[in-house]
Design a protein that fits this description.
alpha/beta; Zinc Finger, Delta Prime, domain 3; 2 domains; five-stranded parallel β-sheet; about 50% helix
Length: about 325
């Protein structure tokens, strides 16, 4: 059976401010008709939404937490509660048809609970016509319905949506909390520390990174960048082939660039501290030949700047392959 503690939002790791806000609403019995859970991707917004839905409808009213064992909690935990709905984006965004169906369903009373709870995901990607269709429901919400909208804090949300909801801020988790969650998912301790660091405190993003092939490509790039110029790393064909593989990553390319930045930053720290390179990325290079070039501080700063320039180029939709080729040549030292 699933862990009941994962149903109780008060026992989830991190997000203390969000916990306090939600607890106050339950204790005062003044739950608004709509929330916006706003924060980075992968930090537990939907998980908190499910836990709050369980607490709202838990049969045990002795505390603000969900008991995890009453019929309502068991149904939510198993994903079979008729009064708990999740509306997810279709092909990039929530469509107007989904919103219209939801608004119609909300006119009917809950099947068996005192409150129907609906999580509407990624409203930042909602098309304007879908958002406008939702506005009337937010202005005149049917009784016994609670809407929880989730949104990425880095994306714009229509002010008309925000003004009709209570905003609950979410943030990246502490590294230790992220590591703990990754370990629950079976990630090796050393791997968990690296991916927790790279993900910016987002366990969801860290797990996605862990399941990709980015790490192997990163190791190949580091190997080529680290050998002396007379070695195989100077082969133009090798560099161009790596650039092709980078360009093929598409949306994951930014994550690879983050890997490169963290590696360079840790080399810079080791340089200024006059210490051996032992950063979080070092674990993945244990099997690599120890031929790291002795880059100085100025060279490392220049390479970090080259990664920043590549990120800005991708943001402007520049040719991905050209961006990757220029980046690798600059990192290798072929271009200044």
């Amino acid at each position: 059976m699933a862990d009941h503690s994962l149903l109780c939002f008060t026992q989830l790791l991190g997000q203390e401010k969000a916990k306090r806000m939600l607890q106050r609403s339950l204790l005062s019995d003044r739950v608004p008709h709509a929330y916006i859970f706003k924060g980075p991707e992968g930090v537990g917004r939907k998980l908190f939404g499910r836990g709050f839905a369980a607490a709202v409808n838990c049969r045990d009213r002795s505390s603000v937490s969900a008991c995890g064992v009453c019929p309502s909690c068991v149904k939510i935990l198993s994903g079979n509660h008729p009064d708990f709905l999740i509306i997810s984006p279709e092909k990039g965004g929530v469509k107007i048809g989904q919103v219209r169906k939801l608004c119609k369903d909300l006119t009917y009373p809950p099947y068996e609970s005192r409150m129907r709870v609906v999580i509407l995901e990624d409203v930042h990607a909602m098309r304007p016509e879908a958002a406008n269709s939702l506005l009337k429901t937010l202005e005149e919400p049917p009784e016994n319905n609670l809407l929880i909208l989730t949104a990425d804090s880095s994306r714009e949300i229509l002010a008309t949506l925000t003004s009709r909801c209570q905003v609950v801020p979410f943030s990246g988790l502490q590294v230790d909390d992220t590591v703990t969650i990754l370990r629950w998912h079976g990630v090796d301790p050393d791997d968990a520390h690296l991916f927790a660091h790279l993900s910016g405190g987002s366990p969801g993003r860290a797990l996605l990174l862990y399941k990709t092939e980015i790490m192997e490509l990163w190791k190949d790039i580091v190997s080529v960048l680290s050998v002396e110029e007379s070695g195989p790393g100077s082969d133009l064909g090798v560099v161009l082939k790596l650039a092709e593989k980078m360009a093929e990553l598409k949306d994951d390319l930014n994550h690879l660039l983050t890997f490169l930045k963290v590696w360079l930053q840790e080399l810079l720290v080791a340089y200024h501290c006059s210490s051996t390179f032992t950063g979080s990325t070092a674990h993945f290079l244990k099997e690599e030949p120890r031929k790291l070039k002795n880059w100085n501080s100025d060279q490392l700063f220049a390479k970090l700047q080259a990664v920043d320039i590549a990120e800005r180029g991708l943001a402007r939709n520049c040719n991905r392959l050209l961006v990757c080729e220029l980046l690798l040549f600059k990192l290798q030292g072929s271009l200044q």
